[in-house]
Amino acid sequence: MDTRDRARELILEHLSVEKGKRRFLDRISKNPTRTRDGFESVKADFERLKGEIEERRQKVRTGGGGNHPDWYKASRSLSAETLAFITLACVLEKLARPRSLQDIPDTNESVSLLVEGQPELSLAKEIGNSCRLEDFCCWLHRDDGPVTSQPHHGKPKGWRWMKRAHSAREVKRRALWLETRYDRGCQFSDKHWVKLGQMLVHVAEDSGLLEQSNSRNTRNQKRVKLRERVLRLIEAVALPYYQHMVHQPLSWKNLDDGGYIDLRMDLVKHWENRSIRDALRNAKLRRVYRAINALQGTQWRINDFVYEVMKGMRSKRQDFPGWPTKEQITKAEKRWRRLEGEANRSKRNEFSEGKEWAGGGAVFHLTSSWGHGCDKKPFKERRRWVKAHRQEIVRSAYEPKRPRALWREAEDPKRFLVACKDAVAYLKWHAAVKAEKWFRGLKLKSFVQRKLTRDRLELAGGLKEKGSTFYFPYQLDFRGRAYAVPRLFHPQSDDEGRGLLEFTRGKTLGKRGVFWLEVHLANLWGHGYDKKPFKERRRWVKAHRQEIVRSAYEPHLKKALWKEAKKPWRFLAACKEYADFLRKGRNFQSHLPIAMDGTCNGFQHLSAMLRDRPGAEATNLLPDISPKDIYTIVMERLRKHIENQAKSHEQGKLARQWRRLGMDRDLVKPGTMTTPYGAKWKTKRDQLADFLLEKKMDTPVLRGDPLKAIELAEYLVSPLDICIRDICKAHSEIEEWLKKVAEALAGRTFYELVVEQMSQTLRRKASGRRDALAARCLECLEKRVTWNIVSDAAIAAAAGRRRVVQRFKSASRDETERLAGYFIDLVGKSVRSVLDDLPECSRAEIAKWLKDGDRKLKALSPRGRPVCWTSPSSFPVVQAKWLYPEERLGSKRLYGEYLYQDKSQPEIGLDRTKQRSGITPNFVHALDAAHMILTVNALRSNKLRDFAVIHDSYAVHACDVDTLNRTLRKTFVDIYRTDVLSKFWEELKCANRGVPELTAVGPPPRQKGNWPIEAVLRSQYFFS
Questions:
Q1: Strands (E), 261-416
Q2: What is the torsional sign of CA 688, 690, 693, 696?
Q3: Phi-psi category of 891—alpha, beta or left, where left has phi over 0 and alpha has psi -120 to 50?
Q4: Would you say 493 and 587 are in contact if contact means Cβ atoms under 8 Å apart?
Q5: Which one of 21, 513, 941, 1021 has the lowest number of neighbouring Cβ atoms within 10 Å?
Q6: How confident is the model at residue 867 (pLDDT cuts 50, 70, 90)?
Q7: How far lies 76's CA from each of 145, 188, 570, 707, in Å?
Q8: How many CB atoms lie within 10 A of CB 329?
Q9: Pairing between strand 482-484 and 118-119?
């Protein structure tokens, strides 16, 4: 049996490789310019193409008088790099098309996925037409290209005028009109472009990219195809389409020898990062290997009952629970059409084309015409004034004849009234854009889910027919978190994917198994019952026993109970398991995974670090009669905050609108759950807005206006943050300290090094020579306005000069000019001095970024050190967000530019911004990963063999849940008996003794509470 499974597994892995190649080649052929690995594999061929094209053009230029070839005349408007890129893109698109996967035999022989060649003339026409389109796009962007008059915007370029039309039909009409104008003034005919295409095909043949094909068509035309060498280069970077295994995965004993039998797979992702690779090779990972091997050894099979229900619903074309319904999509489309009709069509193109309306342009228009000193204030204060007077601005636009209208009080009333009307029109147009985006997103979500379900059912059907047991190999990320490798469905997929799976090995349910099965049913039902005491959860199950059994035997009923559950598919599987238990009794063999989930696990770890009692109580670390729900606690505090704000004058209106909308636990859950993992303001704003767009759009408060939803979401982010941090105060202290540590190790950024060099030079000149200009420039440095000056001056001296002039407005004009010249000269010398001190491999790339004005320089720390520490499971964690040399490739108009980092080159430096923002979530993730590894090892020691783990959710057989609960608490207590932060701090100090900035950070925050960590052992709702 083992030999037969091994043979089947080898065939499956071979098919996975071929399917991966097919998908990769298909992706290249559909969009060759967006496939990074495809171009990296043939980068040498691109360089040869570019050199050969330039050489041929040089021969024509130096060949003396006479008529030049037709191809040369057409090629002069495009660079050699662009011509090489277009040639490579067309060749990959036409000649790298894979055959159907059905043609692949069920053997272990090598299969070529390359289609037959293309006629040379056809390929030449395709390349020539692409070159013509590139020239047309460049013509649209040129200053002497087509122009159209638009109010307030002068004469925009033809490209913007074409792309910003209000409908696809209008875009097509404008494109045809512009193309007619281009052809009318173009000096090249189709013959010139075809000749250029033929020349480029010949260059591709001479450079070794193409070769002649032996097959010929009925017209005996010459055909060309990709060389076998090129195809092998492309296929070498194609990742296999990883699937399940029918043979038990190979045990991990080292970092690159485990999992699949034939397919090579690394244990840890991001293996190309040098810092992570070196740390892992020097680590002892015995406990990590043991835990991952235990997860891989779990035997799985398809849940026949859930599969048949899914298959029946799909064959009847019924909507699955959780999918966007046709009614929701229709309603979203009607809302978009209504807002589209209300939008001012005469203003639509102006708003979409004009830059002054983007990025707060309406704020500048309104405040500059309002006057009264508002036009002299910073942008934040201007925006605050517009928000405070939004209602009066709208009323001025709709009711301008009203005696006390706001526009009458402006310094420039007529201009302010026009700005009010434009602002209202812009808001309508923007609302229509947001509504369209929401409608398109719903349609895409529906399409993706239907396609995913179809693929899942096809794979599950094949597994079910063979009746095979299968396995899932696992990988780790750089923090030690475990992830299942196969796609489509696995123990960590969504509710639909997990509902299709069950353990192959069954265990007798028993009395305790029945208890946990009933708790599991209530947990999956949700609707608040998953946060109630166990007795009430079981009481709910017994009260709804009839509906649960009916769901198991008649699942296709329209109003079946399981369709209303929070996790419908797993709830359906649990209903079937419960119905079978009622029929067979406690000796029934159960195969269902029963999951225990943590209560906002990130806050649990943070509260345990500092013994924070409020956070510990809210996350069930401390024993209590009933479970606490941190999301409900946050919701109640937020409701009180809104009630208080509703009485104020500044934010009272928005607070009263939120009071009318009402608070919901699901509203605050995403923001609360992602806070310990470093969620930013924008992320929380989008989470709140998505909730309103999905569930509250038809309420009288919103009235279908998506902009109103965004405004309300923006207001609620700050109160939500206040309420969260009041509950778990440990998070703020730990987060700030960890960010200081990451910044200290990252070191100074490039601009800070330049400022430091300038400061030293100015102090030396001001004190030694008593230079008055140096003293004045030093004053500017000390007032921290040099950052933008250095940034501008490093890019362009004129921009830096303007910044200096603005800074020294109080000085005379002559003195300002002298200061500007002195300062700009000093910036250039300091930049050169800092570059000379850096490694040679970094200088060229930094100089190029300076020339381009790249924003990466604001975060680049050329001399930084990564943050390295060891988790409680002995797994080495390395946070190193390196910046590598970048290369731009491609045509700038037709295909777009292609940018990638060359990670084979030495690192330029660390990205300090990402180091700072990533340290807190990575530290917490490393701790929950260690908790998982220690828990799985302890369960394996207790003779358990079947596990399903999703970071902070653990599933075993129902009869083993008591063992799981004891083990979860014991391993958590073992981790936090020691001071995790102090251990982290001591490890960093030992590894980075030569970093004075790290010593200046100071020790970590001290523990706040005095409650013993052993109290977790008595908390029955710690994981529930």
A1: 300-302
A2: negative
A3: beta
A4: no
A5: 941
A6: very high
A7: 18, 11, 64, 49
A8: 15
A9: unpaired
User: Residue 632 and residue 89: Cα distance in Å, rounded?
Assistant: 55
Sequence-separated (6 or more) residues with CB below 8 Å from residue 540: 522, 525, 529
Strand order in the sheet with 909-911: 860-861, 909-911, 882-883
Structure confidence by residue, pLDDT tens digits, 157-189: 666 666 666 566 677 777 777 777 777 667 778
The token duo for 266 is 């690394």
pLDDT category of residue 104 using cuts at 50, 70 and 90: very low
Distance of alpha carbon 802 from its chain centroid, rounded?
38
Backbone angles phi, psi at 476, to 5 degrees: -115, 150
The amino acid that residue 910 corresponds to is: L
Contact 259, 247 (CB under 8 A): no
The total number of residues written for the chain in this structure: 1024
Query: What is the per-residue pLDDT across 961-995, written as a single tens digit (0 to 9) for each?
Result: 999 999 999 999 999 999 999 999 999 999 998 88
HEC letters along 14-79: HHHHHHHHHHHHHHHHHCHHHCHHHHHHCHHHHHHHHHHHHHHHHHHHCCCCCCCCHHHHHHCCCC
Tens-place pLDDT, residues 342-353: 775 545 444 443
User: Strand 953-956 vs strand 594-597: parallel, antiparallel, or unpaired?
Assistant: antiparallel
Residue 541 contacts residue 521 (beta carbons within 8 Å)? yes
pLDDT in tens, 710-765: 889 988 999 999 999 889 888 889 999 999 999 999 999 888 888 888 888 888 88
pLDDT at residue 694 in the model: 85
Q: Which of 21, 37, 179, 170 is nearest to 100 (CA)?
A: 21
Q: How far apart are the first and last CA of the chain?
A: 40
SS3 342: helix
Provide the sign of the torsion angle of the four alpha carbons 745, 749, 755, 761, taken in this order.
positive
Is residue 398 a contact partner of residue 424, using CB atoms and an 8 Å limit?
A: yes
Q: Tell me the two tokens of residue 1002.
A: 């100071």
Residue type, 964: L
Cα–Cα distance, 412 to 693 (Å, whole number): 38
- The pair of three-digit structure tokens given for residue 206, joined into one six-digit string: 């001479």
pLDDT tens-place string over residues 27-76 = 766 665 555 555 666 777 788 888 888 888 888 888 765 567 888 888 88
- Token couple for 346: 């005469």
Judge whether 75 and 57 are in contact, CB under 8 Å: yes
Provide the token pair at 177. Answer: 């009109």
- Positive or negative, the CA dihedral 992, 994, 998, 1002 is positive
DSSP, collapsed to helix, strand or coil, labels residue 856 as helix
Q: State which H helix or E strand residue 717 sits in.
A: helix 706-727
Please write down the HEC assignment for all residues of 902-938: CCCCCCCEEEHHHHHHHHHHHHHHHHHHHHHHHHHHH
Stronger pLDDT, 764 or 609, i.e. the higher one: 609
Residues 6+ apart with CB under 8 A from 213: 116, 117, 223, 224, 225
- Read off the tokens for 850: 């300076």
Q: Residue for token digits 């342009």?
A: 361
Angle at 211 between CA 22 and CA 95, to 5 degrees: 30
Whether the per-residue pLDDT at 811 is higher than 70: the answer is no
d(CA 81, CA 71): 16
Q: In whole angstroms, what is the distance from residue 465 CA to residue 463 CA?
A: 6
- CA neighbor of 263 nearest in space, from 11, 488, 482, 17: 17
* 366/390 Cα distance (integer angstroms): 11
Q: Using only C-alpha atoms, what is the Rg of the chain? A: 33
Candidates 903, 885, 920; CA nearest to 276 is 903
- Rounded to whole angstroms, the Cα distance separating 948 from 491 reads 6
At 503 the pLDDT is 96
